[in-house]
Amino acid sequence: MALIPVEEARARILKGVNPLPAEDVTLEQTLGRVLAKPLKAVRNQPPFNASAMDGYAVIAADVANTPATLKLIGLSAAGHAFKGAVKPGQCVRIFTGAPVPKGADAVVIQENTEASGKAVTVLQPVKPEQNIRFAGLDFRKGDALLPAGLTLGARDIGLAAAANAPTLAVRRRPVVALIATGDELVLPGGKPRADQIVSSNSHALAAMAQHLGARVMNLGIVPDNLKATERAIARAATTDILVTTGGASVGDHDYVQEALKNSGVAIDFWKIAMRPGKPFMYGRRRGQHVLGLPGNPVSSLVCARLFLKPLIDALLGLPAGDDLVEARLGASMKENDSRQDYVRARLVETSDGYRTATPFAVQDSSMQRTFREAEALIVRPPRAPVASAGDVVKILRLDF
Question: Which molecular function GO terms apply here (predicted)?
Fold first, then answer.
């Protein structure tokens, strides 16, 4: 298969992808979930005229000239409304958030009063409606409160609770299965032989997928064996996305492609005109998306940022478009070849409000430490000419 451009690969992956169905979950389970249906208010908030201060509910006309002494006839507290009505010459003790009694049209703060038994002397006049929060001040029945497609945070959940919504309709979280392949791999904490390395890809990819809103089925390390690889693929049959790392080439010890084909996966493309990440592979098995990532850690995560992230976003009903931004180059870069480069870089916000992206000197695709220290990838199109410090370039932020 010929190398295909990054943009074409992403378009082919996202072709025909629809958001996953909605499910109703309790508010306690909605943090970080994507709202599938807009939330509208079914009641006014507050549902009644409420006091904004501790003090006394009065008729403003009674205290236009002060001092004015009124008869105390009762109390209104939050959750315990005064049941009667205020008549001329009367007042009701009231606390913040409590319903304003019928007949009263203002609240005098307690600091501007003197009380003695059932007599309350008002020392400062108030205007009608002063210190009252009217019904519907926050929102009214029928108001749009939360839009579909919103990733829910604490403030959103608080608003939903205030609107008396015990559950919300959110997108089902896509399930991502992860398979790491290779005889050379051991789990963290294991004892690698002299010819083995510690597996890191599946752990980083699992964290990334969860950060993006997916659930993860980590199927561990599979040896370089065709039947073992097929068994692992079979275990992932019910997931939305299957991600493999390593073994996607056609060498004597690379069995992933053959195992995928034997398991009913139709390979759409293999190899991308990009660096790092050239061996990336994509296919589908019925409704399942299959992403074959390179074994090199940096290549694997760059491919995940470019292809797994937009796929998860699309399944969640989120925008899955290009999220490149501009920055100034912090050092010169040589002319590019026929592949699109993704160059690890440090990112600095300058005093003039712009960003400066400075590439690391060494870009080896096995070096995880520099990838951890990088804040962005400088995107260098195929055949890009020599670039000088200060030139404007496109970058992709690393936010996982």
Answer: metal ion binding; molybdopterin molybdotransferase activity
